[in-house]
Amino acid sequence: xxxxxxxxxxxxxxxxxxxxxxxxxxxxxxxxxxxxxxxxxxxxxxxxxxxxxxxxxxxxxxxxxxxxxxxxxxxxxxxxxxxxxxxxxxxxxxxxxxxxxxxxxxxxxxxxxxxxxxxxxxxxxxxxxxxxxxxxxxxxxxxxxxxxxxxxxxxxxxxxxxxxxxxxxxxxxxxxxxxxxxxxxxxxxxxxxxxxxxxxxxxxxxxxxxxxxxxxxxxxxxxxxxxxxxxxxxxxxxxxxxxxxxxxxxxxxxxxxxxxxxxxxxx
Length: 267
Ligand code: ZN
Ligand code: FE
Ligand code: FE
Ligand code: ZN
Known about the structure:
Number of helices: 8
Distance between the termini: 5 Å
Largest sheet: 7 strands, parallel
Structural class: alpha/beta
Shape: globular
Bound molecules: zinc ion, fe (iii) ion
Radius of gyration: 17 Å
CATH superfamily: Metal-dependent hydrolases
Strand content: 15-25%
Strand order of the largest sheet: 1-2-3-4-5-6-7
CATH class: Alpha Beta
Number of domains: 1
Number of strands: 9
Helix content: 25-40%
C-alpha cells in the first residue's frame, strides 16, 4: 500500500510556497491520501527572513487557517496541524515557548543552518567552496543529534539535507550514521522519509539507504512527507518513498495526534 499520510507541506506564509491550503487538501484527496499535516516553516529566532519562514505575528493566522481547513474537509480527509521548526543551538528556550503557545499534532525539527549559514540555500552556495565537505557533514550530523536530544521535536525532517546539492563526503561517515541512529532511538524521535530530495541536485530521497538501514536496526520509527511547496507536490513520489522504506527493512510507519503516536500503519 502507498503511504496514506503526508506530514510535510507548506503554506504561502513562509514566503516561498504557493497555493492555498485548501488546494493542498484537494490535491491530497485526488492522490488518494487519507491524512495530511501542514508543517510550515516556524518563525526563526536567530534572524528574520520573510522569504524563509513566517513571522511570530503570523502564527495565530496559521492556526486559524488550518483549523478552518480541518473543519471543511473533516468528512473526507484528516487534517493535522504541525509545524517545521528550526533547531538553533542557543534558542531552545524561545523555541520551546513558541511551540507551547499552540496545540500541535506533531512538530518537525529541521536543521537548515550551520551557525548562521543556510547550507541548503542556493543563494549561499558559494560557502561550500570555503569549507571542508567532511567538516560540514560532521557539523550537520552533530546538530541533528542535538536537535533530537533537545526534546523539542517529535519528528526529524530530512536528516541528511546536507546532501542536497550533491556534495558528498570523502571520508567514511558510517560512525556518524550509527551514532545518529542510537541517539534518535534514545531520544524517542521519529524520522521522516522526505521525497523532495528526488527533485534536488542530489536526486535522492532523504535520508539515504545507509541512514535508514541504521535507523531500522535501532528501531527508529518513520513518517512520510513530500515537503510540498505547491499543491501539485502533495504526495509526490510516494510510490518511490514506500519502496525506499521497504528496501531499508521498514514495513510500517506511524501517525500522530496531539504530539503522540496514535497509529501504526502497514506499508
Ligand atoms: Zn520551505
Ligand atoms: Fe526543511
Ligand atoms: Fe519543509
Ligand atoms: Zn523541509
